[in-house]
Structure formats: C-alpha cells, structure tokens
Amino acid sequence: MGTEARQFANPELPGYLGFANLPNQVHRKSVKKGFEFTLMVVGESGLGKSTLIKSLFQTEIYADRILPTAEEKVTRTVKIEAKTVDIEERGVKLRLTVVDTPGFGDAINSENCYGPIVEYIDEQFEKYLQDESALNRRHIIDSRVHCCFYFISPIGHGLKPIDVAFMKAVHHKVNIVPVIAKSDTLVKSELMNLKKQVLEELEKHQIQIYTLPDCDDDEDAEYKEQCSQLKEAVPFAVIGSESILEVRSRKIRGRQYPWGVVEIENPDQCDFVKLRMMLITHMQDLQEVTQEIHYENFRSEKMASGGVTRKINRSRNTTSDVYERDEMLTEKERQLCEKEAELKKMQDMISKMQAEMQKQANAAQPAEVG
Questions:
Q1: How does pLDDT run across 244-265, given as a tens digit for each residue?
Q2: Which of 135-139, 255-259, 260-264, 346-350 has the lowest mean pLDDT?
C-alpha cells in the first residue's frame, strides 16, 4: 500500500525505435560466447615456425616438444600436431588451435609428404559435415582449418618444387598465406626480388592464395591505406623472436646481432606487424571464406559423389579405412526433402481449392444476371 510504483526510465529520444542497438546485442553475445580459430603452419624445419607463432600470440604452445636428431630426420614422416590454447584480452576470449606439421620436407624423399596434411584438412571438413547433419547441432565444434601459414625458405631464388606441389594440392581447400621466413638473412633489394619472384611463380602455376577483400566505399581513408599496405606486403617477410631487449632505454622484442638489433615489431624492418594485423583484422573473413567457399566446395563434391562417407574414429582422432556407400541421403537432406514434399502437397491443395472456388464463381454468374 505504501510502496509507490516504479516508473520505467526510457533513456532514448522520442521516435527512437531501438533496432539501431542490435549490433551491440550481437557484440555482447559474441564476446560472451568467445571465438574459435584454427591456424595451420607448414614449412621445412628450421624456418622459425614455432618462434613466430609464440611471437604472434605471446603464448607458449610448444613447451613439451622434443626436437629430432639429424638421423631421425632422414626417415621422418609428417606428423600432425594440434594444440589448443585459450587466450583472453580485454574480456574477449579466443580459443586458438595451432596445427603444426613436423617432418614436412625433412626426409630425403619428400615426394607426396603433404599427403597427411591434405587428409587432415579433409577429415575436419568431414567431421563438421557429419556434426552439421546430426540431429543435435547445438554445440558444434569448428575444427576446420581457417588459415595456413606456408613458410618459404629465404635461401634460393623463389619457390621449390615441394612448395609448388603442396600449395597446388591445398589451395582449393584452405586459405594460404605465404610467409618468407627469417627475412633478416636478406638485404632489402634481395628481399624485394624474392617477393616478386614468388608472386610470379604463384601466378605461373595458377596457385590461389588468400587475398584481402576490397574496402567498402564508406570506409575511412586510414583503414583503406592500411589494407592497401597489407596487400602490398604479400608474401609477408617475417622475423620471429621471444627475446626482450633494451635499446636506448626502451624495451623491444628483437634479435641481437654483432652489427646491431633487429626489432621485429618495426614495420620498416620486417612484416611481422603487418602479418599480425592481417590475421587479427581479417580473422572473421578467413572464417567466412572457409565456410562459404572451401567447405561448400567440399560439401558439394561429397554430395555429388553419391554419399561416400569416411568414418572418423573420434576417440583417437584417426580415420578408419572403412568406406561405405549410402544410397540414402543424410538425415538433414532427408528432412529437407520431406519438408519440400509437404510444401508441394499443400501448394497443390491450395491450387485445387482456388480452381474449385473459381469454378463455383463462374457457375454462379449467369444466375445473378438472370
């Protein structure tokens, strides 16, 4: 009795509907849910792949790694090692999975050494397709490879045959970002020539790498300039380092040499910052290209092949050699077909009713005139 009804406070202006606040709702939901991203790194041993990944994300991923001896490398086969870490920055959570490929290009006979890598990429597509076609699709884990850093050796005059063979085998399955490793071993003129040579050979062999999307007309000039510089930096020439050095009373991450210090986060000395900027600012686009192009291509090929499915042993994360040909469609496709049949049946019924009503109306018209 003595309590007064609280009045609802509307902070918005008169005439404001409120749907302009929808992006904020999406933002809050995304931040609460977190993000998932899978990055694959491929390249010969000794090119600094592990160091670069630790430098990019400032996270220890390979703490328990045991390096093989020279004798072991001779007969070594390619292994797939996927490690997942949870990173949080300013309340935003990222579940990062780094897929490493130790043994790539190490053996004396490296013919088809990329076979296990191609199989792994296909297995993740297959796993996602099966999860997407299941009855319960509420908690699908996306383990598809969204981006592949391919490390190119700075020694030589362009791409090696193994580089061309690998990229031609996967460029229609994953977003390839070419990276020139240990670029501090080259002077600026040599680096520019190597970049030009790599781009020419990619075009010659018709290898499609990930290209940054064009900016919209309403984007600000600063963002357009940033995207332009990122496109010009491809292939990215990088240097990795975990060391913190003090230079002129300023702490930097870099490498110490007798002739001076290389600062990896200085864009004038390498493309490390540009590579990180490209990955972070276009992470969503990399996922969308994976979903809308690479995964859809895989799904279309799988459906066109007559329903051949590969059984995945999820407990061991391996693929069985058993294949089955199922003449029936997947559960999802079957449900879609049933719904389409019901819809067609309803449309036929409506058409018959409309024809019947039209017939009755035509029959009634002469009686009204008389």
A1: 888 888 888 888 888 888 888 8
A2: 135-139
Q: If DSSP states are collapsed to H, E and C, what string results for the chain?
A: CCCCCCCCCCCCCCCCCCHHHHHHHHHHHHHHHCEEEEEEEECCCCCCHHHHHHHHHCCCCCCCCCCCCHHHHHCCCCCCEEEEEEEEECCEEEEEEEEECCCCCCCCCCCCCCHHHHHHHHHHHHHHHHHHHCCCCCCCCCCCCCEEEEEECCCCCCCCHHHHHHHHHHCCCCCEEEEECCHHHCCHHHHHHHHHHHHHHHHHCCCCCCCCCCCCCCCCHHHHHHHHHHHHCCCEECCCCCCEEEECCEEEEEEEECCEEEECCCCCCCCHHHHHHHHHHCHHHHHHHHHHHHHHHHHHHHHHCCCEEEEEECCCCEEEEEEEECCCCCHHHHHHHHHHHHHHHHHHHHHHHHHHHHHHHHHHHHHHHC
d(CA 339, CA 179) in angstroms, rounded, equals: 48
Contact between 340 and 326 under an 8 Å Cβ cutoff? The reply is no
CB atoms within 10 A of CB 178: 22
Residue closest to 174 by CA, chosen among 144, 195, 216: 144
Of the two residues 168 and 57, the one the predictor is more confident about is: 168
| CA-to-CA dists, residue 163 to 191, 194, 232, angstroms | 18, 14, 21
Give the tokens for residue 369. 């005139």
pTM of the predicted protein model: 0.74
Phi and psi at 257, nearest 5°, equal -125, 160
Find tokens 């990329």 and name the residue. Answer: 114
Q: Residues 102, 281, 140, 292: is their CA dihedral positive or negative?
A: negative
**CA-based Rg of the chain, rounded to a whole angstrom?**
28
Asked if residues 181 and 198 have their Cβ atoms less than 8 Å apart, the reply is: no
210-252 pLDDT, tens digit each: 999 988 888 888 888 999 999 999 999 999 888 888 888 888 8
